[in-house]
Amino acid sequence: ITLGSLLLLIAIFALYRLYTYDKVEKEHQAKIKKFLEDYRNFKPIRYSYVDIKRITNQFYEKLGEEAYRTVFKAKLSHDIHIAVKILNTSKGNGEEFINVVGTMGTIHHVNVVRLVGFCANVFRRPLVYEFLPHDSLKKFCRYKFISSTAAKNLILNLDKLQDISLGVAKGIEYFHQRCDQRILHFDIKPHNVFLDQNFNPKISDFGLAKLCAKDQSAVSMTTARGTMGYIAPEVFSKNFGNVSSKAYVYSFGILLFEIVGGRKNVDVTIENTSQVYFPEWIYNVLEQKEDIRIFVEDDGDAKIAKKLATVGLWCI
Fold first, then answer.
1. Which residue among the candidates 38, 51, 163, 187 is catalytic per the annotation?
2. CATH placement of domain 45-130
3. Global pTM?
């Protein structure tokens, strides 16, 4: 009886150890599997053109169209949506495609749109991005101060717009300080800042981006890069001096003015109109220490508007 009890205890102990070992081993395997999946997700996937046609349902749902690009909504699975941007290969020499994959494929930041994958088809160069449901910041700059019932769901208060501005600034700081090479975006504007489901900003469109070493202050430029109205003077013309690695910060300043003013500020030729160039107007208001109560209703918003406008002036 004693021997039988002892053998039973040994058997139970052995089974317990075997069960525990198997459980721990499965946990380790799951951990390794998750790591490998996450590691794979850190690098963009190369898709075939057949895959692109399948996930876009034969390019069924168009999200938007620009001069040389068309964006379609797509699905990776039942509940995972993505956006596919088709670049027109007849324009340019493939520089935009190389810039995007070369820069976005190596960076991961909460305030940068994630490049999921790409396709290097001879006739099409699709780029696959995470899908952001709230479109770009330009829509919210445009409708921010409209009080009609139809536009109420598009209105963001200045407190939230300040958070969005800070997120964009964090993305720019990441490009400048925390990448192996500095990434000079050169096209920061509301059109290229997209908002996720929680209205967190994500910088996109690296087609005009340029890389430079961290210790490099001056940047050589053969042609101007960027969108008219957002380009720093020295990028547009050599008469204003050399282009520095911080030149695209000017664009961020203009973006802040659009947030504060609720309208575009690109028209610097205001002759024969009653319009005043907004950055110049805001400068005069702050210089004369006047109240910056523009399109705002309370002191809190006025303080935020003054802060954003001041930073915008520093940037330009």
1. 187
2. 3.30.200.20
3. 0.75
